[in-house]
Amino acid sequence: MTEGRERTLMLLLLLNLSLQVFDGVATYFGVRGGMPEGNPLVAAGLVHLGMIPALFLVKAYACASLMLIWRLRQRSRLAFSALVTTAAAYTVCSAAPWSAALAAF
After folding, report:
1. Residue 23, Cβ neighbours under 10 Å: how many?
2. Residue 22, pLDDT score
3. Which SS3 state, helix, strand or coil, does residue 36 take?
4. How many other β-carbons are positioned within 10 Å of the β-carbon of residue 84?
C-alpha cells in the first residue's frame, strides 16, 4: 500500500471517529434538551438502558466497526469506499441535522 493511500485512510478513520464523538455528544445534549432521537434503534436503547449507557454502547460499537475496517484495509480495497461512505452518511444524517437543531436551540 502506498504511503499516500495509507495517510488518506488514516485521515478518513480519524474523521469518522471524530464524527462518532460529535454524534454522541450532540445526541446527549439534543435529547437532554427535549429533541427526539431520529434513529429508532438508538431511541429504543435510550429508553431501555438510559442515555449514557446506550450512547456509550452504540458509539463503542460504531468505533469498533470503524477500527475493523481500518484493520482490514490491506486485505480489501473496499476500506476506502467504506470509510468515505460512512463519513458522508454521518455528515448528512447526523452532523448537519444536529448542528442545525442545536444552533436553533
Report:
1. 22
2. 95
3. coil
4. 15
Give the residue with greater pLDDT, 54 vs 38.
Answer: 54
Distances from the Cα of 49 to the Cαs of 41, 58, 64, 79, 86, in angstroms?
12, 11, 20, 32, 26
Query: 79: pLDDT confidence band, cut at 50, 70 and 90?
Result: very high
Alpha helices in 37-95 (DSSP H): 40-49, 51-71, 78-90
Listed residue (88, 77, 96, 104) closest to 38, CA to CA: 96
Instruction: Give CA torsion, residues 24, 68, 75, 12, to 10 deg.
Output: 20
The pTM (predicted TM-score) of the whole model is 0.90
Look up residue 14 and give its three cell numbers: 480519524
Q: Beta-carbon neighbour count of residue 79 at 10 Å?
A: 21
List the grid coordinates of 34. Answer: 427535549
Report the length, in residues, of the chain.
105
